[in-house]
Amino acid sequence: MAFELPPLPYAKDALAPHISENTLDFHYGKHHNAYVTNLNGLLDDADSRSLEEIMKDTAGDASKAGVFNNAAQVWNHTFYWHSMKPNGGGKPTGAIADKINEDFGSYEKFAEEFKTAGATQFGSGWAWLVLDGGKLKVTKTPNAACPLTDGAKPLLTMDVWEHAYYLDYQNARPKYMETFLESLVNWDFANENLG
Ligand code: MN3
């Protein structure tokens, strides 16, 4: 069963000026799409596993690195698009707001930890807000790695690979991360994932 590129949850120009249509043309239309095409090329037509099952089956297996990397990049990017919304950003609301205060002390402390995770992920990778053992945690992963395969529940993610921000921010990763939190982050999605 072939995977398909999931639709974006908003129009390609809907995150502008923070993330331009040009960035989404490349990042969604080319990069994300290529992971789907590559994954389908590596799987048997008869393979009926879900993306999550494939990720769990292949994580940490060097002989299956190609399948894992493409499957996890498909999953991570879909999760990333939903982690943002037009007119998003700002302080969290609802259950996630209370849980952030409980587990980090304050929103400001969470934001600091999240930006530090993104800034210290050398090269390509992701900063995450996850639920792990009943507690919220900030983590970072390199390349395609996803906290899902370590038993944590992802709530939000931010892609920190250069292709996520280079066309709009050039090398200014800190400015992109600041904008992600101030103008893009989708707390409704985090609340849904918190369940
Ligand atoms: Mn990316």
What does this structure look like?
This protein starts with 20 loop residues before the first helix and ends with a helix. The protein is globular. The chain has helices spanning 21-42, 51-58, 65-82, 94-104, 107-120, 166-169, 173-184, 187-194, and strands spanning 125-132, 135-142, 153-159. With 195 residues, it is mainly alpha-helical. 37% of the residues are buried. The chain has a three-stranded antiparallel β-sheet with strand order 2-1-3. A hairpin with a 2-residue loop joins β1 (125-132) and β2 (135-142). It contains eight helices and three strands; from the N terminus they run αααααβββααα. The model has no long low-confidence stretch (mean pLDDT 97). It folds into two domains: 21-82, Helix Hairpins (Orthogonal Bundle); 95-194, 3-Layer(bab) Sandwich (minor pseudopilin epsh fold). The structure holds manganese (III) ion. Residues 27, 31, 77, 159, 161, 163-164 line the site of manganese (III) ion (MN3).
Outline: globular
CATH topology of the largest domain: minor pseudopilin epsh fold
Bound molecules: manganese (III) ion
Strand order of the largest sheet: 2-1-3
CATH architecture identity of the largest domain: 3-Layer(bab) Sandwich
Task: Indicate the low-confidence ranges by residue numbers.
Answer: none
Q: What is the CA-CA span between the terminal residues?
A: 30 Å
Per CATH, the superfamily of the largest domain is Iron/manganese superoxide dismutase, C-terminal domain
Helix content: 40-55%
Number of domains: 2
Largest sheet: 3 strands, antiparallel
Number of strands: 3
Q: Give the C-level CATH assignment of the largest domain.
A: Alpha Beta
Strand content: 5-15%
On the 0-100 scale, what is the average pLDDT? Answer: 97
Order of helices and strands: HHHHHEEEHHH
